[in-house]
Amino acid sequence: MRRHDRGELALVLHTHMPYVEGYGTWPFGEEWLWEAIATCYLPLLELLDRVDGARLLTLSLTPVLCDQLAAPGVPERLARFLREVRRDTHRLDVDGCRSSGHEQWAHELERAAGDYERALAQVERLGGDLLGAFAPYASWTSSATHAVLPLLATDAGVRLQLERGIASHRARFDAAHEWQGGFWLPECAHAPWLDPLLEDAGVHATCVDLTDVLGPGAPAQLVPIATDDGPLLVPLDRATVELAWSDGGYPSHPLYRDYHAFTVHHHRVWRNDGGTYDHAAALTQARADAADFVARAIARLDAGARELGRPALAVCALDTELLGHWWYEGIAWLGAVIEEAERQGLALAPLDEALTRHAPVPLREALVAAQPAPRVAADVHAGRLPTTTWGTPRDLSTWDGPQVAQLAWQVREAELRALVRTPGDGHAPSPRAERELLLLQSSDWAFQVTRELAGSYPRERADGHRAALAAALSAPSR
């Protein structure tokens, strides 16, 4: 099938970090931000500059991440971390490995230390303006603090998250390129009642995971959907996403660097199969996986276009931090995907641009041919969408299940206290109260508790913001 007859692939990178700047250090706190900048964001910027990334993919930056990148003192503290902490920890591990007879590990640590030296040099070349470096590429935004919007208690709470997030994005990036209405729903969490609120906020398109609604691999996943009350819903193509993001996806290959096994000072020298990491061999594998990804994406588009009778649009959305940080070779893989797409004849396009070429189908038409999972079948057969996310198991249980039920109710109760006032009292929450509410609503605290990722840190953060909100609400107004 010819390149333009098959359609195109939209790579969407969702870039987010919970607000950790100024909130703790190792093992949980702002060092997460320094590591993400050094191992993911700066290498990604290097790649985007090299390949003119704005014409090839979609980059979403959350306002809460942008706030941290622009915070006073961040470039200086990042540089100090790279110059002092990472140099010392690598040196200590190198000395320890050599003294214990593990020369291969020491050699790999010396090579890996160069990653942080290159990051330091890049920060200095940018003059510390990390946010400005992203400006040419940041085309999509998100809610203010990455709140799971279907779990908010009020329309007013949703509006606050939307309005603050979109205004922040436009103030920072509209001079580089005017926002076209692309909006990343945190956790891809969508409920139909959100649609008119999204529409009122100026959202034109958003990504959703309709795997359980339309059926795994269904051709309907390759067509945007027009809702009655809101923006275009653009289904993620799980068949493509899971090539890179699943238990058996590319990052699990034996040659790639093991993220979970650490040296004494929290560095990594082993492959997934337990052997000593070989960077050259891993990069060779990344190129092979990129070629495989492009070939499979082409096959998916070709099959979809034949079944649909029209060019298909496959959306592969990934958390940006998968690349470089969680999957060490991920940035190299992405660069190779871009090269392979050109070689194999796969069209890549930013999602905003691609949507101008793919007419949406009405929601009811999309649901007619759906093959829903039992959990959502009643909704689908009634012609309506259920609440969906891309979280496991594609519902809201990560953020409101038994393990975090108390936290979920506390967040809703705090929202009601802050935003639902006695009629006629004329009081809006103070800027301090608004800030604490927004930070409390972040999806990250419940996610970390459910996944048991950060000990007591997420509960302490949620409790701290809840207490600060209560204090702000009880303070006398001026």
Overview of this protein structure:
Strand 4, helix 8 and strand 5 form a beta-alpha-beta unit. The mean pLDDT is 96. Helices cover 50% and strands 9% of the residues. Helix 18 packs antiparallel against helix 20. The protein is built from 20 helices and 9 strands. The protein is an alpha/beta fold. It folds into 2 domains: 379 residues, Alpha-Beta Barrel (7-stranded beta/alpha barrel); 78 residues, no CATH class. A 9-stranded mixed beta sheet has the order 8-1-2-3-4-5-7-6-9.
Strand content: 5-15%
SS-based class: alpha/beta
Q: State the total count of DSSP E strands.
A: 9
- Briefly note the CATH topology name of the largest domain: 7-stranded beta/alpha barrel
Instruction: Provide the low-confidence segments as ranges.
Output: none
Task: Please state the CA-atom Rg, rounded to the nearest Å.
Answer: 23 Å
Q: CATH superfamily assignment of the largest domain?
A: Glycoside hydrolase 38, N terminal domain
| Tally of alpha and pi helices | 20
Task: Report strand order across the widest sheet.
Answer: 8-1-2-3-4-5-7-6-9
